[in-house]
Amino acid sequence: MKKQHIKDMIFRIAPIVGLLILFALFMVFAVIKDINIPYSMKNILNQSVIVIVVATGAIFIYTLGSFDISLGANMCVSALIGAMAYNRTGSVLVMLGACVLCAVLISLVCSVLASVFHLPVFVTTIAMLSLLNAGVLMLIGANGTGDIVQVPADAVSAINTVEFKLLVLCLYLAVCIFVFNFLKLGREEKFVGGNPECARLTGLNNSRLAILAFIMAGIGVGLGSFLTITYAPTLSRNTASSVGMDVIISIVFGGMPVSGGARSKIYSAVVGALSMTLLSQIMLMLNLNSGISQMVKAIIFILVVYISMSDNKKNNLPR
Amino acid sequence: MSKGKRLAGTLAIPVIACIVTNVICLAKGVPMFETGLNWLTFVRAIANVSLVTYALSINLNSGRFDFSVGSIALLASVLSASISVKYGLHPAVMLVLSLLFGLILGFISGLIYITVKLPPMIVSLGVALLYEGIAYTLTGGHGVSFVNNKELLGFASVPNYLLIIVIALVCVVVIFDHTTFGYDYKALISGQRVAVNTGINEKKNALICYTIAGGLMGVQGFISATTTGSIQMALNFGSIAPMFMAFLPMFIGGYIGRYSNDKLGYLLGAVSMAFVSMLYVRLMVNSSVQQVVSALLLVGFLIFLNNEGRIKGLLHPKHEN
Hints:
The structure holds 2 protein chains of 2 kinds.
Chain A: H1 2-32, H2 37-63, H3 71-89, H4 92-116, H5 121-143, E1 149-150, H6 153-157, H7 162-182, H8 184-194, H9 196-201, H10 206-231, E2 234-235, H11 243-253, H12 268-285, H13 290-308
Antiparallel strand pairs in A: 1-2
Helix pairs in contact in A: 1-12, 1-13, 2-7, 2-10, 2-11, 2-12, 3-4, 3-5, 3-10, 3-11, 4-5, 4-10, 7-8, 7-10, 8-10, 11-12
Chain B: H1 3-27, H2 36-60, H3 69-87, H4 91-116, H5 120-139, E1 144-145, H6 150-153, H7 158-177, H8 180-190, H9 192-197, H10 202-228, E2 230-231, H11 241-244, H12 247-256, H13 262-282, H14 287-306, H15 308-315
């Protein structure tokens, strides 16, 4: 019994151990290659903070055993709307509001559509991805200069600091941790993710929970799009294009089961996103080309997930 | 179910797609099929979409979501095109090489899945990253180009594409509907635990599924490569895009499958989508409108599928006595 408990704990902390090992490796290579460590750390935070914010919100969707592939496209549309709002009003606060409101609205449409018409959530998000990509082209075409929509760099330079980004991240993370770990919503979501039928029979409203999960994720996407504008105020159709998949990879890398349920952890996004960014930085320090760097990333990704999920193996193949 | 009803159910969607798109084209004064190139585009779209749909549905029907199908097409075509260009091979040989590489890559993907026993979605994410990385490294990030190789580009013809479409359909129908493997596959779909308890080797079955899906994507990669004469590299999941074109045909195929055969349904779904694609091409519809229309078609059809009972109830209300 005690042995099993220790084994469970080892598997549970495997992603965190992975992160610590990556950090140690990063420090070793940084010292060997005489790299400016504070500057590199700043870079790592800059690169990972957006993914962490979006992925933390997305955990609410993943906990239900659902999956949203349109997060990146949602972020791009929200960032464009936010930039347009700034260009009309000159107010950063209005830009923030527009980003969050737009992202939440898009998430709401997606979840309500799936709930009202009984559509599979994942397929609804695929259709939404297509619609949002078209929306990006239309918004840029109607409001952009050439292929871009721009916010003056001066307007956001004051908030383009690691301190500000960390503040936004910490505030949102605190809210998410509170909702996920200390409110009924988090417990109910884990229940639905673990056994939707049982949850329904005990009286839980799965549609309501799905809508709330998408709202939480929408807030994360909105904040992510706001931070994207502060980091890169020139927006194009490729803005946040890789965020959707980065979020999936980070969440899984951080030890979150894709099937959701009771084993879901809110900190998975932080651990996963930081690990992936550290890994990329180490590859850069080793001067590996993009192809080899991606191959190494893929192998490490499968290995870490394999180890962290080793205690959950069944006889039949997982689906 | 009567034969007439079966026939009507099977052909309804492609016939409606054909009529609607042709009427729109004619209303705009543009005939849908004016030149041989239009036919070539139409048949190529059917070949591309049907192959991806078969490949995706093989695993998705078993609850295995596979993000790596696009990366298999990419890497298989990179390998076969590089060899064919280097040794001046005939397009038929390149096709066979693409198929073989696709089979091998699909087999490796399946082998990783049954070995690590992780959810297929996670495995496919890792495999997609891996194959994209290999393709990028092999070509130095420059891709493969053979735009001046007339022999390889000469493969693009209506009879060749038709041959591929027919062979692919016959193969998937025979393999999945008329072999022991196919019966086991269906048993595993309807009840995984029961099927395994009765002695069906699930691992072997899954491995064969991944291998077949890989082979189909290898051929799709060949068609894409010989269309333009160049293969662009993709990193960070840039290769997953082809997967999205398969969803609507797959749902259409599932619907048609109620009246006839689901594989035939996938093909007819691809035919329906090819009509829509031709409409875009002939009317020069811009890409954002294309994406909106495609998304609305997908959502609309899904709403119909998931609310069929309610819709029928509204159309034919039962009178209570």
